[in-house]
Amino acid sequence: MSKRILPLDSADFEQVKEIIIKEWGSDYVIVHGDIIHPAELPGYKVMQDEKLVGLVTCMIKGQECEIVTLNSFQKGEGVGDALMKKVESYALSHQCSTCMLVTTNDNLNALGFYQRRGFYISEVRPGAVDEARKVKMSIPKIAENGIPIRDEITLVKQIG
Length: 160
Ligand SMILES: CC(C)(COP(=O)(O)OP(=O)(O)OC[C@H]1O[C@@H](n2cnc3c(N)ncnc32)[C@H](O)[C@@H]1OP(=O)(O)O)[C@@H](O)C(=O)NCCC(=O)NCCS
Hints:
alpha+beta; Aminopeptidase; seven-stranded mixed sheet; two-stranded antiparallel ribbon; binds coenzyme A
């Protein structure tokens, strides 16, 4: 069965919140020092039959669209790519000129994924995750790939 991309609506709130808790350790994330509740944001889901296989949340600030969370549950099949394309068109339709996101130094997969899609590194904040961990103690110290999680890396893409 083919996959469908749908915008999130209020009926998705509980499921999105559950996914955020499972994937990001709580119902909030800390990005550039801000506490953000992704389930309250606009976004898109990828559905295959009745199963949610991908989720992106984002927020618009002026002419910038920030991708807050991106998760694929069917990796390597184009789910992440389709969600990124959808967010870019959402951003364009809201008169944004850039998309940006923050990831962490350990996330080599995401760093590659975004840079292959036109994003470039615009800022590195050494120790920013160590600071966030003082508030959100569930942030692991070491990633599954063995890299200590310490720094925030901002990536930006010009879209308009
Ligand atoms: C980063 C992430 C969202 C990518 O999602 P994904 O669904 O695997 O992404 P895609 O399938 O679109 O692309 C990944 C690779 O799969 C391959 N691929 C994509 N579609 C494919 C297809 N139809 N057939 C074969 N291979 C395919 C490509 O090689 C692609 O690599 P590329 O960057 O060279 O194009 C996913 O790894 C993830 O959820 N990671 C954990 C959470 C995370 O780190 N989020 C981002 C941090 S904010």
